[in-house]
Amino acid sequence: MFTFFAPLAALAYFILYIVHIEAVQHLNETKWPSQNFTSVPEFHPPVLEITAPEQASKDGYLFFNPGGPAADQVAPLIMDSDGELVWNGPPGLFTFNFGVQQYRGEDVLVFWNGTRFPEPKGRGHGNVYIWNKHYEQIANISLPGNFLEFNGERYPSNIDLHEHYITGNGTILVLAYNITMADLRSVGGLAEGWVVEGQVYEIDIETNEVLFTWNSLEHLDKLPFTDSLYPLGSEGYDGKTQENAWGYFHHNAVTPFTDGYIISSRYFCSAIAISREGEVLWVLQGRDGGDFQLEGNASFCYQHDIRVLSSSLDANNSLASLTISMHDNANSPIDKNKIPTSGKIFDIDLASKTATQTHRYLNTSGLIYGTAQGSHQRMTNGNIFEGAGYVPVMEEFSPDGTPLCRWTFGTPIRTTEGGFLSPEPENVVLSYRAYKQTWVGCPRTTPDVVLTKMQA
Ligand SMILES: *[C@@H]1O[C@H](CO)[C@@H](O)[C@H](O)[C@H]1NC(C)=O
Ligand SMILES: *[C@@H]1O[C@H](CO)[C@@H](O)[C@H](O)[C@H]1NC(C)=O
Ligand SMILES: *[C@@H]1O[C@H](CO)[C@@H](O)[C@H](O)[C@H]1NC(C)=O
Ligand SMILES: *[C@@H]1O[C@H](CO)[C@@H](O)[C@H](O)[C@H]1NC(C)=O
Ligand SMILES: *[C@@H]1O[C@H](CO)[C@@H](O)[C@H](O)[C@H]1NC(C)=O
Ligand SMILES: *[C@@H]1O[C@H](CO)[C@@H](O)[C@H](O)[C@H]1NC(C)=O
Ligand SMILES: *[C@@H]1O[C@H](CO)[C@@H](O)[C@H](O)[C@H]1NC(C)=O
Ligand SMILES: *[C@@H]1O[C@H](CO)[C@@H](O)[C@H](O)[C@H]1NC(C)=O
Ligand SMILES: *[C@@H]1O[C@H](CO)[C@@H](O)[C@H](O)[C@H]1NC(C)=O
């Protein structure tokens, strides 16, 4: 029974208001300030610290999924820009990538659940769930198969926690990780070493049939081990045993584009374009350019959430240029606190082979150094919404880059300059990605209501 406080009718709104008053009286400041509800005692969503709610756009709700060892309540959440709870998912459900997507022409809720291996492994084996506007499950997508993990365990479904992208064709793009053996002598390792392979799948949602498969180890000619910016041995991953398999590639997003798919590889610091046949077409590397010349101050590394915003064709109907966006962490566990994290937009010109950085989104008074996770969203109203992932902060910007509002949950590490650092893994409260999206829920459950006598 998932209770829903829908601000649909005036009566419902009045009840919500009463519940809110109850909540404010019951703040729990010991771990993270949380809201209690008399009507639903098992919900403890965070009280958000909000810098400038009046500057936040009125469009959309916040979709995020607090989790991590220091989270008071692990559950997917929908809140409005003022931090009022709209919907609290099942407490204890540590979802990834909770947000609204479109499937068969309708807005649906999408999230991942499964077995997680937190940072520094940072991967998982699970299923993708799609819920309709009635908060009813309409799909449970799986990837069974012969996958190996560091611990020798097998999982019924092996969809990784990073990416769940529904295409306009009724398919979903997902990632998977498999541990296997490879010759690591080119990077000073064993001839029979252990690596974590990056895989990409396109799955038909209706039938669960796999339509496309891509494996990183089949493309070592274009994507060699020597290109990894996470050297063999980093954080103890020396590739000498199955348990210490080297996560050299660590892909975290895949998105369709005119000629196939674009993969985001965190440790190649690259946007990798592959054809529908899986051939590597080009690589945009954020530090040396890869197949491109980086113009001016263009740079990125350890990025997340690469998306294609637009593309244009030449006279022969070939792709001429495209514009991509990303959350540029610029920080990793082995390279941090030098360059702040920001949202970025790049124009890629395929004829001149150049990449130009056109926009950067960050609050220069409150710099964030995010060593892992995060998201970048262009909202339907054109504003930009950044989720800081490993740092429990979400920000909205105007299209030109003006910071509008910041929402903080949990207890992030603050710098004396007004910014944020990433915590040690045991102190993390995170939301892998976060979105600000429009959504109309029509729950079939009756509201849980407690009427309290109030002083006049
Ligand atoms: C808030 O909820 C917690 C967990 O159920 C409970 O222990 C606590 O007493 C509640 N706080 C208040 C002030 O009611
Ligand atoms: C506050 O949260 C802490 C940590 O989760 C918990 O131990 C404590 O019982 C909570 N107190 C209240 C009053 O809710
Ligand atoms: C979420 O995944 C975990 C781990 O696989 C599983 O134990 C749990 O039952 C799942 N929860 C739901 C609601 O599917
Ligand atoms: C989803 O499918 C998996 C099999 O891949 C099954 O184990 C699990 O129970 C299903 N979960 C729900 C909530 O339907
Ligand atoms: C749908 O599939 C067709 C044929 O493979 C492809 O050309 C088109 O780009 C796909 N559309 C999306 C939105 O993925
Ligand atoms: C995973 O790797 C193992 C070898 O370690 C191999 O036997 C298996 O087929 C691979 N699975 C997939 C799905 O690639
Ligand atoms: C279009 O194709 C023709 C013939 O292959 C070629 O000569 C021309 O340069 C192409 N134009 C563009 C813009 O690539
Ligand atoms: C650096 O990037 C920003 C956008 O991120 C751009 O506005 C600015 O002109 C660039 N500066 C140079 C010197 O290229
Ligand atoms: C930018 O960061 C500063 C320092 O933390 C903060 O005071 C300010 O409110 C932030 N701006 C916005 C719009 O959130």
Automatic annotation (TrEMBL):
<dbReference type="InterPro" id="IPR039535">
    <property type="entry name" value="ASST-like"/>
</dbReference>
<keyword id="KW-0732">Signal</keyword>
<protein>
    <recommendedName>
        <fullName>ASST-domain-containing protein</fullName>
    </recommendedName>
</protein>
<feature type="signal peptide">
    <location>
        <begin position="1"/>
        <end position="23"/>
    </location>
</feature>
<dbReference type="InterPro" id="IPR011047">
    <property type="entry name" value="Quinoprotein_ADH-like_sf"/>
</dbReference>
<dbReference type="InterPro" id="IPR053143">
    <property type="entry name" value="Arylsulfate_ST"/>
</dbReference>
<dbReference type="Pfam" id="PF14269">
    <property type="entry name" value="Arylsulfotran_2"/>
</dbReference>
